[in-house]
Amino acid sequence: MESLFAIAIGILTAAAVYMFLARDLPRVLIGFIMLGTAVNMLILAAGRIGSIVPALVAGNESALTAAAANPLPQALILTAIVIGFGLAAFALMLIVKSQRILGTVMPEEMQEAEGDVAPQALPAPAPARRKDAA
Amino acid sequence: MTHLLALPLLMGIVASLAGTRLPPRHAPLLGAAVAAACFAAYGFLGLGMADGVAVEAAFWSVPALGIGGGLRLDGLGLVFALLISGIGFFIFLYAHRYLEGDKRLTRLSVMLTLFMTAMLGAVTADDVIVLFIFWEMTSLTSFFLVGYDHEKPGARQAALQALLVTAGGGLVLLAGLLMLTVATGTSSLSAIIAMRDIVLTDPTATAAMLLIIVGCFTKSAQIPFHFWLPNAMAAPTPVSAYLHSATMVKLGIYLLARMNPLYQDEALWQSILTWFGLGTAALGALLALRETDLKRILAYTTLTALGTLTLLIGAAPTLTLTAAMAFLVAHALYKAAMFMIAGIVDHETGTRDARALGGLRKAMPATAIATVLAALSMAGLPPFIGFLGKELIYESLLEAGPAALLLIAGMLFVNGVNVAVAGLMAIRLFFGGQRPTPARPHDPPAGMLAGPWTLAALGLAGGLLSGAVGLWIVGPSAGAILGAPVTADLYLWHGFNLVLGLSGLTLATGGALYLGWPRIQPWLAGIAAIDRFGANAGYEKGLAGIIRLSEVSTALIQHGDLRGYLRTLFLVTAAGLLLTLLLRDGFALPGFDSGTVDIRALAFLGIAGGALATVFARTLFGAVVCSGLVGFATALAFLFFGAPDVAFTQFAVETLLVAILAFALVKMPIRRADDRTARDRVKDGGIAIASGVAVTALLLAVLATPFDSRLSDWFGNASLTDAFGRNVVNVILVDFRALDTLGEITVLAIAAFAVLALLRPMLQETRKS
Question: What residues does the NADH:quinone oxidoreductase/Mrp antiporter transmembrane domain cover (chain B) (predicted)?
Answer without folding.
Answer: 125-409
